[in-house]
Amino acid sequence: MTQVQGNRDKNMPDVTGGRALGLDALRGIAILTMVLSGIIPFGELPAWMYHAQVPPPDHVFDPEVRGITWVDLVFPFFLFSMGVAIPLAFSRRLEAGAARRQLLVKVAERGFLLAFFAIYLHHIRPFVLQPSDQEPWVWWTAIAGALILFAIYTRLPSGWPRWQRWGIRGAGFAAAAVLLSQLTYPDGSGFSLYRSDIILIVLTNMAVFASLIWMATRQRMEWRLGVLVFLTACILASREPGWIDAFWGESPLPWLFRFDYLKYLFILIPATMVGDQLAAAMKQGLPAVLQDRSLRGACRYHVTAVAGIAIMLILLAGLLSRQVFLTTALTAAIMAATLWLFRKAETGNDRLLRTILLWGAFWLMLGLVLEPFEGGIRKDHSTFSYYFVTTGAAIWLLAALMVWIDLLRGVRWFSLLVTNGQNPMIAYAGMQNFVLPVLMLTGVHGWLLGVTGDPWIGVLRALGYTVVLALLVAWLTRRKIFWRS
């Protein structure tokens, strides 16, 4: 267990399990903002409150819009968190004596469980079951479907007999199969492998491919960079007529895999490089709590904490307003000034942060230099600039969270983010399959809609719903009720 965890705030529940708390907080930010972005009122808010390429008031997809908003950051930030976690999880397994074959089995198991989650969850969502004017049975079905997931994904105590643990999971799968066999959708169809959550399908592919690539290149980071070069060549070649274009458009399992999903490895592979650095540092008890947390004694850390947020805000405002050169200049100046403070790197914390920040600066500047390519940065259809800019921004935000939480002992103030980041599957499913159904069945949602007609008041309502979900997930996490794939 790392030194920071040994000295964490006493008010923080013992749910860390040797985890990197700053990374958990970043994952928590990603999952909660992902939930929030799906329930804010449509139509009358400013463009920066929605995906940049789906602007108000009509929210019709427009690929000519350039720039990114905070909504465009939530998915890459979650992907990045997944990538960083791969070396952390697998390194621990290898140190515990796990063989490569066991890791491959784990990758396959995780891929299956994530794919099932993507398909099953989408089948039991209220707005999929009945797109409008939901009847009570829809909300009860959503809740019942979510309860079944506890049997399948809850991490049961290792002290329980294996037959008991597998029996509970088997019963969950059986109940899920029965439920799916009874459901009918507005088009008259029933269960379909093609009815799935695209975000979770992409996460499934990334979890499998990024894990396999890390296992194959664990000792050779330069090979991972080579994978990115080869992937770049494939993507560019697929845009021209030829055999690669024909190959890229085919799939043996189109409901599960498309070659186009591999583009997100541009986020996952750099993330595994950061994960390697963090895994090595954690073996040495880093990041470690600072003894001198005064503004003067920890100036470089305080600057890092502010720089991570400032860079993200500058990127969002500057790229959406198309002030690309000014955005690049300001970002480069902030990164250079912050890195200058770590030029001596006298301590383990210094060396860890300097390494992470250098990687962040590299990917971020690469993305900003590539910004004019492909007509400017955008999420849909995603550009090379989008992958690298969001990766660099995620690294700098991760560094800021590590400073606040792991070094400056601010875990109490970020506990809601940390606990949700440790239980992201429940957080992802919880809004549509528990919080919203309960609010609908009790009439609370209808009443709130009547008194929150103003769009910005509607944003406050969405924030309130998200906080309720976050508190519920935090309560489950503190009681060590986790969903794990």
Keywords, separated by commas or semicolons:
485 residues, mainly alpha, globular, disordered N terminus
Task: Please characterize this protein's 3D structure.
With 485 residues, the chain is an all-alpha fold. The chain has one domain. 65% of the residues lie in helices and 0% in strands. α3 runs parallel beside α8. The longest helix is centred in the N-terminal third of the chain and has 24 residues, at 100-123. The protein is globular. Residues 1-17 have low confidence and may be disordered.
Quickly give the structural class: mainly alpha
The percent of residues in helical segments reads: 55-70%
Distance between the termini: 23 Å
Pattern of helices and strands = HHHHHHHHHHHHHHHHHHH
Total domain units = 1
Unreliable segments of 5+ consecutive residues: 1-17
As an assembly, this protein is single chain
Average pLDDT works out at 92
Please compute the radius of gyration using only Cα atoms.
23 Å
- β-strand percent reads under 5%
Sheet with the most strands, sense and barrel status = none
The DSSP helix count reads 19
Tell me the overall shape: globular
How many DSSP-defined strands?
0
